[in-house]
Write a structure and sequence with these properties.
This protein has one domain (8-129). It is built from five helices and no strands. It has helices at 8-31, 33-40, 44-66, 74-96, 104-129. Helix 4 (74-96) runs antiparallel to helix 5. It is elongated. 26% of the residues are buried.
């Protein structure tokens, strides 16, 4: 695995994983809005808006992942990183500093978002810094 990490293939794999989780969670938010709102204690409108946002983000990530350019487009990768950091921060705000009262399951869901999305941003940042040739977005 350590031989893969400095390569663009590592970064492309991270972006594909990010895109696939975005599609999965976006579809989940949109298709199961009512049950999720009840289980998580989060407003249905919030879940619908975030579902659309996740699918849009995933579409961008897929476009970056399938791009034939080598190295991957650095500028667009920074957009993904910023999006992930913003998502992690927003999840943390919802968890700790909002007037929402998520259920225990909802709190766990938000905490998983904070940690996993921040980790994805870190892996992407790590990969972008190791691209040998700087690409123009």
């Amino acid at each position: 695995m350590f031989n893969l990490m400095p390569s663009p293939r590592f970064l492309r794999a991270v972006v594909w994983f990010d895109a696939s989780t975005g599609v999965l969670l976006g579809a989940l938010h949109l298709l199961l809005t009512a049950p999720l709102a009840e289980w998580l204690g989060l407003p249905a409108g919030l879940l619908q808006v975030t579902g659309v946002m996740l699918l849009g983000y995933a579409a961008l990530a897929i476009a970056i992942a399938i791009a034939r350019s080598e190295p991957m487009p650095r500028g667009w990768l920074w957009v993904l990183i910023a999006g992930n950091l913003a998502w992690a921060a927003a999840s943390l705000v919802l968890l700790l500093g909002s007037t929402l009262t998520p259920t225990l399951l909802g709190q766990a869901y938000l905490l998983v978002h904070v940690v996993s999305v921040a980790l994805l941003a870190e892996l992407q940042w790590w990969g972008v810094r190791r691209l040998r040739v700087w690409a123009v977005a």
